[in-house]
Amino acid sequence: MKRLVFFCFFALFISGWVNSALSQSSNYLYLDSFTPTNKFGYTKAKDSFNSYFLMGGVKYSRGFYLSNNGQPNQHGFVEYSLKGKYKTITFVLGSVKSIVGLGNDIPRTSNVKAVFKVSGDGKKLKEFVVEDYGVPNYVSLDISGVDKLSFEIIINQITIGVANPILWTAQQKSVNVGKLTNASGKQLSLITDLRPYATSGYHTLISQNDKVESVKINGVEYTNGIELNADIQLIGQDERFTYFNLGGKYSTLTFVAGPKDSDNGQLGVAWLTIKGDDKILLEEEIGEDNIAKAFTVDIKNCNMLCIASQQSSGSSRLAVADLKVYPEGAQLPNNASKNGDQSEFLAVSDKVKVLPDVCKLVSNIEPYAVGGGISRENMVYNGSSDYYTFSMGGIQFNEGLIFQSATNVLNDNTGCHAVFNLEGEFDYISFTTGWISKCGVLKNDILEIYADNQMVFQMPLIATSENQYYEVPIHKCRKLSFIKKGVVSLDHPAFGVADIVLYRGKPVKNELFVHPKPDCPDKIDLIDLSKPYIHYASSLKDHQSDLLKDGSSKKEYFTMPDGQRIYKGFVLATSVHFSFDMGPGSNPSVGVVAGTLGGSVMVGMVGGTAISAVFPFGALIALAAGGTAHESSCAAFNTWGEYDYVTFTVACLKKEDNGGGFSLKNSPIDTLLIGADGEVVYSIEVHDNMKPTTYTVPINKARQLMFWLQCGNWNSGIFIFYDVVLSKGSNIAVNAPDVNKLNSSAAVNAPVEPYVFPIAQLPFEPIEWSYPKRCGVDAVDNYFSDCKKVINNIQKFYESLNTNYSSKAVYVTSSSGELFRAVSIVDNVGKEYDFQEIIDMNNDVIKSVKQYLNVFVNLNVSKVNAGVGLIDLGFNAVQYGKLVNNTAKVMNLYKNQLTQLQKQKEKENELIKQLISQGISIDGVPSNDKRIFVK
Predict the structure, then answer these.
(1) DSSP for 597-635?
(2) 758: preceding bond cis by omega (within 30 degrees)
(3) Which of 471, 735, 842, 897 gives 20 to 30 Å between its CA and that of 865?
(4) Model confidence, pTM
């Protein structure tokens, strides 16, 4: 009997336990098992594409979700009839993401929010704000006595999920069912171990399981991370996001962040932001040329982790890598920031640490950021092949950088750059610079070098100069930047920086780069020793292959006027043309500095020391900077510093004409200058009717020999140079006149300073601005219309300006032998202006500018009215407010341009008046309206 009682009791216990267990597990009463009495935009989990839906990356197979069902003016809702039988309902509430076929996985550019309401018998029980990118949360509501239970999206059009909706009677104890995160609570790597549950787009996941398996930051390859897009936006600066559901299980986040290595970057800057549950935990501004850092962020109790990017200026790509989260008390990595700091530089890598004290740069550490007018493949030479080279100064280099800019229609950035991460290990660099042979654009530029954003080097890059060697301190910098400034032009020169060597300590002699030197016998034909590495004749650019004959084939020759064939030689011809550069010439800050120092032209400064070229050759070098309609022609050769003399024959191959057999040249005489290492050693007069004439001139063991045909006032004939022979020795007869023996019969160009016209003339630069669409509010629309009219008028005004003049000076010798200058103002074909004519033109410009500046006062009133009118736009007020402010900035830029133009013209008039007051008479000949004599 006792045994029977025991078994009965045990059976009742087991039955109660099983019922209780069933009621707490598989025997839950799910609301989605009821048939809705009314619904719209309603989908059961079991009826969705995969029989489940995702919230915060977690799969839910029980429940339902609501959407607008593709109807923009409808909101999802569902109603159930419960007959008042239940006391409590529990469920998981959240935003549904990545549901195939519903379009909810289309990335948004902002984290929108919706209002979700639960009602019982028409009475609101609870309202919830649900974020589009939010994580799911547990909800428990008292529904005692409720018959009609309804769920409804009130505001906005995101999809909202109700997962594991369970009904509980008064006799049952309600519990939260289902998990809220896939995070384990153990240390893990984001992306690899825990995937993000949502992204707003423009972010690319990096892992071996994704399409992109790796990303480089500062030349280091990472196989786990996110590439963050921060490209320039046409309107606004929207953030882009990636979200992780951490479930509050972690206390620390560590990662490495920096710019993604760029192949054609713009040195843009972007913001990296880390948010925890919508609270900003970290903000870091990262430029394309920044050095990567290790970051440590406190994420204690964080559920929704957001990694965001946003453009600051320009366009760029960031990357975050090695994203790891740690629970409370876990051992952090060695590179985790200490003392409360959020970031620190990475330790020196083994790769750099083991480099020798004197080593090559590019083949050991390639640049992580490059940009300009050519691709990385064409810009970076890492010494991998002796046959993959570029040429400077007649020498082949297989390691270094080529810098060539491009004019960008979207901004004024015409520079190019290469940036290296040296990790603070080196003290000096050495390198060689030069013009890239046969790039075809003979203009000057400026090279700057920065060590951790501090300029340590600045020098002009002179197109016609021989290769230059430099040694520069870099002060153990981490970031080493080479920047070529660029010119305002439609075409850009290319310069090289080659044989870059790194030094721990001061530079020492080394043989890391050795360039073979050809045999240099006592006498050799110049073209047999080396072909010209500069051969520039703009008027013959369509016949480049016909500029040189090397004697290798009897099928190739020049034909002289008398029928003689010349098999070995080269030609030069000058040209005068209309310049199509973007502006009147090179950027005023670029190229050769125009100021003269005694008899030389200053071309740059290094460490406070002036670097100059001897006049007049230095002045002629300045002509190669571009922006002038007068183009000289030249050919430069590498003579390896071995020879004392050059002997050559020069003749006119073809007379200059306009195609009709007649010439418009003002003078039949052209000037040929012979340069040796940047100095004019002899000047020779040549002309269209000259017979072949042979000259021998000393070149004093120069490394660079240059033949420079100086441009006059019109195109020259085509002159041929042949039988060009280099020779060693002394006491060779010299039959060329000395350039310094000037006389009154020769009109030789003189320095114009300080009477240079136009004065610092700046080009009109149209400013990017798009006429906004009408908004319907007159005050706002009228402001945009007024601005458009002003801009159109300013553009027409600039088109009407006469800038076709420049100052010119020639030497004049008095009867006593004293040297003076005759200064005049001429147009592109040599016509002289009256000085008063220029003053009158300038006064007309100044008057017009003042009238335009008065118009800007009225625009300010129009802008104020527009600001008042914004109130009538409701939700559109913010958007049009930005457009109004942006337009005001554009108008202010136009105003500044006009103000500068006025100052330039006023200064020019002052200088002309000063010149007139300084005018003198020479041997009884007075200065006049078109030509003024000055000392």
Answers:
(1) ETTEEEEEEETTEEEEEETTHHHHHHHTTS--SEE-EEE
(2) yes
(3) 897
(4) 0.68
